[in-house]
């Protein structure tokens, strides 16, 4: 574990000392404390902290105002919320902090246990090393003309990486989601959020969709040669369905590339919709009629609704990570998840949970009857060749488990 500097903001002296003792007991941790939010803001201005642990209910400047002030700092430490307020209020505070660009490592009800502190510090260590979900690379502004983006697509700089989906029944990787990446010659491998706004701005979303579809089919062909049939899901902005011939174009391209529609699923993203609802339903129906799978992406966020779920011919529902994070400890999130999973099961849908980060979340989803999971606990998105190596390794480990050989790895 690397050296970590932590600030604890808690107005009650006993609670402040109690938390400080638990953090100080961990090796390599330096702890500062404050009982006043205004003082803590000043401390963050002069000292770079890796983690700030804050209460919400405090006299004077409260925890919410403190987080807002923290977001205005040049250096934003990661955050943990520790409070006796309701879980819903804690969840709302977390969403507020994340919307301001602050990474929230955890929300913990009082009293906090030593195990809570150990898990929090482990997450912090993973995040700082770049191995955990909270790690965010330094943002480098990406600028590109339409011609440069077009060339990046044509030359294969913009391509598909694949995030595994594991079955909660078998414990094996059974599917993948294709995620767009740009292997930029100057800035390295860029995630989608760094350049997709430019793709949208220059009207190249359809070109990227076709490109990712081709890359996915090519990857599936390689995996089949290894003995694996891996369905792949691909993000599709719903406003593209305004083009009535899009399902025909996607089918033609799939068949030209030697792909199988049944092994491809288009995830209708919640971030956009069509101007006319008729285009949305017509496009969804026609994609299914062509034999493609169809998923409601990010269910539980944005534009996704229960009405939309039951009135669109989906084959899969993907539960947004916002409903998954903390579900093992938050009764409200647990109940919401149980309702969504039960509804998806009654509708005959494949149920996939996104953003799974802890073993506790995985166990909760398994108990609730979720079918598949993806997230940093399983694997981040990886290139097609690395995905193929992962499949081979998992197959070998599973064979050892079935044979009962020493050192075998049980499916997770």
From TrEMBL:
The record's annotation in SMART domains points to: EAL, REC
Q: Give start and end of each EAL domain.
A: 142-395
The Response regulatory domain covers which part of the protein?
5-125
Per UniProt, what is one GO molecular function of this protein? cyclic-guanylate-specific phosphodiesterase activity
- Report whether Nucleotidyltransferase shows up as a keyword of the record: no
Give the record's GO biological process terms. Answer: phosphorelay signal transduction system
* Record Pfam families: EAL (PF00563), Response_reg (PF00072)
Mark the transmembrane ranges.
Answer: none
Tell me the superkingdom of the source. Bacteria
Which keywords does UniProt give here? Answer: Phosphoprotein
| Database matches in Gene3D superfamilies | 3.40.50.2300, EAL domain (3.20.20.450)
Tell me where in this chain the PTM 4-aspartylphosphate is found.
55
> Does Repeat appear among the keywords?
no
Q: Which PANTHER family match?
A: CYCLIC DI-GMP PHOSPHODIESTERASE PDED-RELATED (PTHR33121:SF79), CYCLIC DI-GMP PHOSPHODIESTERASE PDEF (PTHR33121)
What protein is this chain from? EAL domain-containing protein (Putative c-di-GMP-specific phosphodiesterase class I)
Q: Origin organism of this chain?
A: Stenotrophomonas rhizophila
